[in-house]
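User: Here's a protein and a ligand (pyridoxal-5'-phosphate). What would the complex look like?
Assistant: Let me lay out the input and then the predicted complex.
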Amino acid sequence: MQNLLRHIPKVDDCISAVREDPDFDNSPVLLIKKGVRTVLEKKRQLLLSGSKIEAEGLSLPALLPLIKNEIISLEQFQFRRVINGTGVIIHTNLGRSVLPESTMDMLHQAGGRYSNLEFDLTTGKRGSRYSLVENLLCELTGAEAALVVNNNAAAVLIVLDSLTHGKEVIVSRGELVEIGGSFRIPDVMARSGATLVEVGATNRTHLKDYRAAITEQTGMLLKVHCSNYRIIGFTSAVSNRELVALGKETNLPVFEDLGSGCFVDLSQFGLEKEPTVQEVVASGVDVVSFSGDKLLGGPQAGIILGSKDIINRIKQNPLNRAMRIDKFTLAGLESILHFYRDPESLYTNIPTLSMIAAPLNDLAERANTLLAQLQSSVGDVCTLEIENVMSRVGGGAMPEQNLKSKAVVLQPVSMKISVLEKSLRTLEIPVIGRIEDNRFYLDMRTIAEDELGLIASGLGMVLNGQGD
Ligand SMILES: *Cc1c(COP(=O)(O)O)cnc(C)c1O
């Protein structure tokens, strides 16, 4: 073994060999050195642990490709674009909403130039970043006042902290939501210093349950949207109107965490009718909060709508500073909200909504285009089919709600399906799909027209071990 260890090439020789390749002309020497050291150290450890390696496998020519791959992977950005073939439109793990081109232009400007982020152009004095989208939000929703924070979890926290610190908050047992990433309504409430009072049973809650729980200590009536689950069967929930009436009668604010918050009725696309933000505001609820990057189709944000008095109290909460949005969010959100002035244009301009609205015929056509490209490149090494599937809106937006879609389905002749899935995931632009019954599914609903070529060449590379 000592003898073999001596066969491991010298670091400096490896570095020189890498630098002979013009592909690495722009690679910093420190990074090349790191790549070399990593590969050599791995070999050393293998030898020390008793693995059998031929002397030849330790030669510089044998190690050079490994070293180059290591450097390439060190140079790669960790945060990258992927192709979403899962059919889940608002996919929290894949970045939720995709923004329109013109919105991207606004982000570009916001980042690359100075702006009036906190500068009032009329008075020439200090301005407030919050005022920039407040009027537009009020115009679109009918709310009296608005505030935007970092995300909806932050919105829920700051609403509760501002209005109910040290008091009791009444919520139905059927609405004690966990939405993943360990966001649980009861936990957030504990942090805000409010005490949760659960009423009703899991499947049924009545107005009299809320009423019976109201005491001197009560500070709020809370409603939470059942984002990612549904209670079916023998059920009963209290409507907004009933809760608002009870709130008025007992002088308690009513807060609804809407979760996704949609400005338009999506039932025309076969989805169940959900109350729109405008309808919830009109129902008389005192405060509403929802996400910017779920059905609204914008950047990550938590939007809070309510009466002037309540929004002012929230604005003055010191937590507001800790949750404030940055200029990119502001630029992106204003751009997205502008689209909502023209509801006709929404389904072509906002990707999240256009993916929901995409007609089945378009998806079938997209599937045919991809199938034709794949038949010529990988038709020999895998079976290819088009199948009817169901896409999901996702993002805890609409539970159990599916949209008819088309998928291109692959089954390699010799490659294991798990190997295919992993190889696609490690491409320069990773392609993410899903495995079902030992077959690989690519749902056309979340794949853009201009991504079909990338998928075809990626699959060609993986299945043929080369480009197309
Ligand atoms: C998604 C969701 C949240 C959290 O929103 P984020 O913007 O992800 O922080 C809170 N409440 C409900 C009901 C949700 O669906």
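Summary: The mean pLDDT is 92.
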